[in-house]
Specification:
There is one protein chain. This protein is of the alpha+beta class. The protein folds into 2 domains: about 180 residues, PUA domain-like (Roll); about 110 residues, no CATH class. Helix content is about 30%, strand content about 20%. The chain contains 8 helices and 14 strands. Strands 1, 4, 5, 6, 7, 8, 9 and 10 form an 8-stranded mixed beta sheet that branches.
């Protein structure tokens, strides 16, 4: 392997992804990924079928993938958080030991990888850079860390509670939150559920039930794509959404006289159905979560 080629390839891939995803705000499709070129020739950043991509030009893996599962089926490889706040990525267990070896080389060489996280069939949220920092062979898995905690948290060693919380927060900010946002915005076709605004830079992925509460899962059915004003209004219970997907505005706000934003942006949405909902029924807001949040909205008013 030519070390200069390795470093240049990874850097160019990162820069290209940053441009194509609008600095990480948008997911990317398989067909778009096929447009990447290196040194004037097409170059695959991920494999279509295999979860670990190691080009023949490199010694270590270039990317890893967590595939989007079929409806109502779990992901084949159950990547999950470890007790130290870092992610565990499962071994290939289908005889492709060379792929596992490519991740061991990534540990040895300390090279950055791209993590393609499936949010829909053929659509991915790229997370980069991430590093493979350790292997746990007894559990058939590798330990993945975002750059911000690499070298700070050492898997298998005692960890201070404050450091564990820091690692957990960084993992959520660098992996879970971006994947949740990308999944929700993709499901809502990059439109605000309340007003149908389409500008992604002005949209958030709002939890129906906060992730710190019981039931607050990081799944599309616990999410709503909302513009920033409607997200804030939802968070502070100025705006509520009934289980039948109809918008309500708090009664004291309806009685208030103010400028055009209050009148057109909030009050006129009262009693109106959501303007955007996911096409797939499995992605639509869970009724039980809407009921829980709507009850809190009613009690606040």
């Amino acid at each position: 392997m030519d070390p200069s080629l390795d470093g240049r390839l990874r850097l160019e891939a990162d820069r290209w992804l940053t441009v194509r995803t609008h600095d990480g705000t948008l997911p990317i499709s398989w067909s778009e990924l096929e447009e990447f070129e290196f040194d004037g020739a097409p170059f695959k950043l991920k494999d279509r079928q295999r979860g670990i991509r190691k080009p023949r030009e490199l010694t270590a893996a270039l990317s890893i993938t967590t595939a989007y599962p079929a409806p109502n089926r779990p992901r084949r490889y159950a990547d999950e958080l470890g007790p130290d706040g870092l992610i565990r990525y499962k071994w290939r267990d289908d005889g492709q030991e060379s792929d596992n070896q490519a991740l061991r080389e990534a540990i040895r060489l300390e090279v950055p990888l791209i993590w393609f996280f499936g949010i829909a069939p053929g659509v991915y949220k790229p997370i980069y850079p991430v590093f493979v920092v350790a292997e746990e062979p007894e559990l058939h898995q590798f330990v993945i860390a975002p750059d911000s905690v690499r070298g700070i948290v050492v898997p298998g060693q005692p960890i201070d509670e404050h450091l564990r919380r820091y690692a957990l927060r960084q993992t959520r900010q660098r992996l879970h939150q971006p994947v949740f946002r990308a999944s929700v915005l993709h499901a809502y076709e990059t439109r605000c559920a309340v007003c149908a605004l389409r500008h992604p830079e002005l949209l958030d992925a709002a939890h129906i039930v906060a992730d710190r509460e019981e039931g607050g899962i990081a799944a599309v059915r616990n999410g709503l794509a909302l513009c920033k004003i409607h997200h804030t209004a939802y968070d502070v219970s100025v705006l509520g959404i009934r289980p039948d997907l109809v918008v309500e505005i708090r009664s004291d706000i309806l009685a208030e006289i103010d400028g055009p934003m209050l009148e057109h942006g909030l009050k006129r949405r009262h009693g109106e159905p959501l303007m955007a909902v996911p096409r797939s029924r499995t992605d639509r807001p869970a009724v039980e979560l809407l009921e829980q949040r709507y009850a809190a909205f009613r009690s606040a008013g």
